[in-house]
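Cortex morphogenetic protein CmpA
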Amino acid sequence: MPEWLRKQLMRAFLGKDRRQIRLLNDCWFIYKQKNGGRNIS
């Protein structure tokens, strides 16, 4: 998980901002789908 996303998720969890948590969670799954199929050597 990228550092910028981790920091934003922590901020959202600490602030109990459910809308932001949901949005960042969706971003993470889209990011994983787009970058998950790539073979990194």
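thats it. Residues 3-36 form one domain. The mean pLDDT is 86. bye
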